[in-house]
Amino acid sequence: MKRYIARRLMQGAVLLCMVATIVFFLGRLTGNPVDLMLPEDATAEDRAALTQTLGLDGSVGDQFVIFVGRALHGDLGTSIRMKQPAVDAFFDRLPNTLVLIPWALLLGMVMGIPLGVVAALNRGGMLDRAAGTVAVLGVAVPSFWLGVLLIFVFSVELGWLPSGRMGGPEHFILPVITLGTFLVAGFMRITRSAMLEVMESEFVKLARIKGLSEGVVIWKHCLRNALIPVLTLWGVFVSNLITGAIVTETVFAWPGIGRLTYEAVIYRDFPLLQAVIILKSILILAINLGVDILYAYVDPRIRLA
Amino acid sequence: MTETVLEVRDLHTHFFLRRGVIKAVDGVSFTLRRGEVLGLVGESGCGKSLTALSVMRLLPKGGAQTVKGEVLLDGENILERSPAEMREIRGRKISMVLQDPQTSLNPVFTIGDQLREAIQRRHKAPRAEIMAEAVTALRRVEIAAPEQRIAQYPHQMSGGMKQRVVGAIAISGQPKVLIADEPTTALDVTIQLQYLKLLKRLQAETGMAILFITHDFGVVGRMCDRVAVMYAGRIVECGPVRQIFEAPAHPYTRALIASVPKMTGPIGRLTTIEGQPPSLMNLPVGCRFASRCPQVEQRCLDAYPGSVRVGDEHTADCWKVTPG
Amino acid sequence: MAIADPPARASLWRLVWPARVPGGVRRTARVPWIPIVIISVIVAMAVFAPLLAPHSPIDQTLRDKLLPPVWMEGGSTKYILGTDAFGRDVLSRLIYGARVSLIVALLALVVGGGIGLGVGILAGYVGGAVDSILMRLVDAAFTFPAILFALLLAVTMGQGLGTLVTAISLLLWASFARVIRGEVLSLRQRDFVALAKVRGCSAARIMLTHILPNVLNTFMVLVTLNIGVVIIAEATLSFLGAGIPPPTPTWGLMISEGRGRLTDAWWVALIPGIAITLMVLSVNLFGDWLRDRLDPRLRQL
After folding, report:
1. Which residues in B lie closer than 8 A to residue A299 (C-beta atoms)?
2. Torsions phi, psi of B100, nearest 5?
3. Do the Cβ atoms of C25 and B17 come within 8 Å?
4. Would you say residue A132 has pLDDT above 60?
5. At what angle do helices C128-143 and A270-298 cross, to 10 degrees?
6. Are B229 and B252 spatial neighbours (Cβ–Cβ below 8 Å)?
7. What's the whole-number mean pLDDT along residues A251-257?
């Protein structure tokens, strides 16, 4: 198990270096952010000054050496707009996103997994059809529009819930639904197909031969096995959550790292965006590692391998 | 005569598909007595396994249904029991060993856990006591170092060992009837023999009756007291093993036995049975073996032959057989 | 005991929500007519936009700003779906928006899908170190949200069609590569490939003339299944200010512009969302049907 974790850590480190390198070169080789940041009538001195501030002077090779050196010291550049180190800006906002994501994940699992099981048990029946409709809609509705729709219905028309910003529990409801809907559909779809497959297996037959009650057969024997494929998709879901947080936080004016990303884009804050992408990558890797360990815990075939 | 523990009367289990009705089990009757091993033999697809699953009332999803017949376990028709009552019966009165040990155990629970569930069905006791019982159960099926094995997961065991565990689980409720559905087919030849001996020993100790499903006549000779030969959803011949081997009455049985190489005596010619069994969706009105039978006559095609008593406890469904 | 099998009634969503066990008897799904009609209407809107749009999608008529749709009080038949804060006709912008949506989808699928196709064939056929390296890249692409890279491109390259297509291609190629590679791995074992080798065909020739035609079915299925993904990605990037720059109308941009005006002009933000949802729903249902027809083994996609 320790060796497994060590191996995953190594893989994560390699991936991270890859991402940082790709981000670096993508940023340098695809165009010049300086052109986009300055007004068209900017002087040559202005351009040179900004180029230097962004660390875009010198050859790309030299820049890369400096970039790596600074990155190793935890310095990923300074935000132009906020005039503060990008890393600090990120960590100031991170907690606000981290309080949102678990709720969305919880919503996705608490709704999605049982619905998937129920749909599988009612294969072809009314409940299955209803669940199928939710699953199909869940991937077709763009989440930013869903957020806008929710605001329109629950804030503007009904006046029940606040339309944005952080605050008490009522502020969480709409963002969590916006962020979690995709997950509900995803969890449901995978749980259902995994359950259908597991329910046909021989060990389920043996469990019935033992005379176990249907409840134990379904919720213990089947679900525990069906959760393995569900867990493998956690990594994908985490990616989705990080992406989803960008639009959700934008729609609900939620001061997290998603909104920070959006701000970096619209203000063309290149150093900030570069830092945010690298830091989010670390975050995603960390969560993926956690999922892998959890996965090993659920599946003894991996834990004991 | 010893008491009958399981009697199946005129069992019909059909698959209802959009393409039509598959009559996989179509009028099966047999009896199983206390302490005996009845072999159920036939080629694959003849309805052996489905007969077993019908008796257990664990038909596969997707249109399979028992439409007619009785399954009398200790004299009561279990086809009329509610699903809840049926759960009480399963594991405690009637149990089953499945074909493939690789997939019969749940990969995410320990052997001990899976055994415990079965033992707890019989009686409630503190966890430690149940675990001690589980160790005993494993020892009974000749698993070495059961104390260690109990904490292991299925993937840490060999196929033969897993099948022993499945056996331990199946008999832990002290059932009167054990259905063994080709329990050794998936095992190595050397392990097969050990497993058969184990089953024999367990049967001698507990006095349970075993319905032994196989396609292997060699195994039948080793294991069974009586044998029922199944063809296209029906039992075509049934009788004591010795009689069936020495004087098979039904042409199908004769052909089956002729296709098994003999271990003793001169090496004769092995024969194969020409042709295919009839489509279970479109069964002939007459004898189902007629299309492949070397002795076929007009009456074989016109009507299904009744069951003819050939000898003591020996019956065959064939027009050409003379009652003995 | 009732007869267990229900009568065959293939409904539309049954296509994405198979009622059967994996590997079980497959029901043949009915042709999804409603999605096909919706797709046709939207494609027609895109192609004939200049003929269909009643107004210019860009010209501002400030005295007509924020007029409600025709069915609401104060609405008129002049602006069937109302106008936005600059007095632009929502219907006309919606029609032109379909154009952007479909052009981006088409280009991104050709570029991103094409790269994925190439990578998949190469990795699957050549194998060895090439395969390992390419597949590690694919894994990395799956772990990291491509949308982040897309946003970075928008900042370095500037907004525009090229940026958008590059960005969305980044999102697509990996999933194409993974599926195609799997397909190629099994094709490689087949006799006709061995035969071609025996005849002395070069690896490049085998990949082009023997492998490629055999994965085109799968490729087409992947393309259809990913149209929805691309449309949502385009709309999302537009919404985040990284799509085609204003004033060109795109559905995502319309929602972004309208969301501040929910209290007095909800139609500006909500109507384009309905268009996106209908379009994505339709192409997904159609794609699932196509997959069942052409390549049912891809069901788990």
Report:
1. 107-108
2. -105, 105
3. yes
4. yes
5. 100
6. yes
7. 90
Q: Name which of A90-104, A230-244, C126-140 the model is least confident about.
A: A230-244
Asked if B18's CB is within 8 angstroms of C8's CB, the reply is: yes
Can you tell me the mean pLDDT for C159-184? Answer: 89
Contact A228 B108 (CB under 8 A): yes
Query: Partners for B (CB, 8 Å, 3+ pairs)?
Result: A, C
CA C21 from centre of chain: 28
Chain B residues near residue A214 by CB distance under 8 angstroms: 83, 87
- Among C238, C279, C263, C257, smallest CA distance to C68 is for C263
- Coil, strand, or helix at residue A105? helix
C8 lies within 8 A of chain B by CB? yes
Average pLDDT, chain C: 80
Rounded Cα distance, C164 and C104, in Å: 7
Express as a percent the part of chain C with pLDDT over 70: 88
> How distant is the Cα of A128 from the closest Cα of chain B, in angstroms?
16
Where does residue B143 rank: exposed (0-12), middle (13-18), buried (19+ CB within 10 A)? buried
Contacts of A144 in chain C (CB under 8 A): 235-236, 239, 252, 255
Instruction: Round to whole Å and give the CA distance between A79 and A89.
Output: 8
- Partners of chain C (3+ Cβ pairs below 8 A): A, B
Q: Which of residues 83-122 of A touch C (CB under 8 A)?
A: none
Sign of the torsion angle spanned by Cα atoms A230, A257, A80, A72? negative
Distance in Å, alpha carbon of B183 to nearest chain A alpha carbon: 13
Specify the 3-state DSSP secondary structure of A288: helix
Q: Which of C173, C226, C239 to mutate to test binding with chain A, by most A CBs within 10 Å of its CB? A: C239
Does the pLDDT at position A17 exceed 60? yes
Label residue B111 exposed, middle or buried (CB < 10 Å: 0-12, 13-18, 19+): buried
Q: Which of A268, A222, A249, A221 is nearest to A101 (CA)?
A: A249
End-to-end CA distance of chain C: give it in Å, rounded.
37
Q: Which chains touch A (3 or more CB pairs under 8 A)?
A: B, C
Distance between A304 CA and the closest CA of chain B, angstroms: 9
Q: How far is CA B107 from CA A225, B153, B187, in A?
A: 8, 7, 19
B19 near A CB under 8 A: no
- Furthest CA-CA distance within chain B: 68
The residue in chain C having the minimum alpha-carbon distance to the alpha carbon of residue B66 is: C1
**Residues of C in Cβ contact (< 8 Å) with B65:** 1, 3-4
Average pLDDT of span B205-231:
91
Q: In what order do the strands lie in the sheet with B234-240?
A: B94-97, B177-181, B209-214, B37-41, B226-231, B234-240, B314-317, B307-311
In the stretch 54-93 of chain B, residues with CB closer than 8 A to chain C read 61-67
Give the whole-angstrom CA distance, residue A251 versus residue C152: 20
Reported as a single tens digit per residue, the pLDDT across A190-200 is: 888 888 888 88
Peptide bond into C247 cis (omega under 30): yes
Place A63 in a pLDDT band, splitting at 50, 70 and 90: confident
Higher pLDDT, C288 or B197: B197
